[in-house]
Amino acid sequence: MYKIGFIGAGKMAEAMIAGLIANRFAGSGEIIVADISAERLTAMHCEYGIKTSSTNTVVVTQTPVVVLAVKPQQLGEVLSDLASCISDQHLVVSIAAGKSTSYLESLLPTGRVPPGRQ
After folding, report:
1. What angle (nearest 5°) sits at the alpha carbon of residue 35, between those of residues 29 and 37?
2. pLDDT tens-digit profile, the chain (118 residues)
């Protein structure tokens, strides 16, 4: 099992992953990321040595902390796909701009979403 998983491997996710590793909060063997771009996943694996997957559910089933690092317009679809995999044992954090905590909670009734902007 991994310590933290990322759905999305864009620049914001990469910055967070680099910081986690640099500050020794998590080692490269404790992070997993999923993205639709095979090229991006290869780059992330080569740069940071992290585990990658082309399937979001693999990330969710293998980690207790899930960071949603997708574009705001993709968030609804991603959450709909993941809702059945998210349990009350998951901590779900989103960095999608403009999406409220209540929006996340409405699509993930069993996941734990930290308090934030309503």
Report:
1. 120
2. 789 999 999 999 999 999 999 999 999 999 999 999 999 999 999 999 999 999 999 999 999 999 999 999 999 999 999 988 998 889 999 998 888 888 888 888 776 777 654 4
pTM of the model: 0.91
CB distance 100 to 117 below 8 Å = yes
Strands (E), the chain: 4-7, 31-34, 51-53, 65-68, 91-94
Q: What is the DSSP string of 63-76?
A: -SEEEE-S-HHHHH
CA gap 98, 109 in Å, rounded: 20
Say which CATH superfamily domain 4-107 falls into.
NAD(P)-binding Rossmann-like Domain (3.40.50.720)
Q: Is 46 left (phi over 0), alpha (psi -120 to 50) or beta?
A: alpha
Domain boundaries, the chain: 4-107
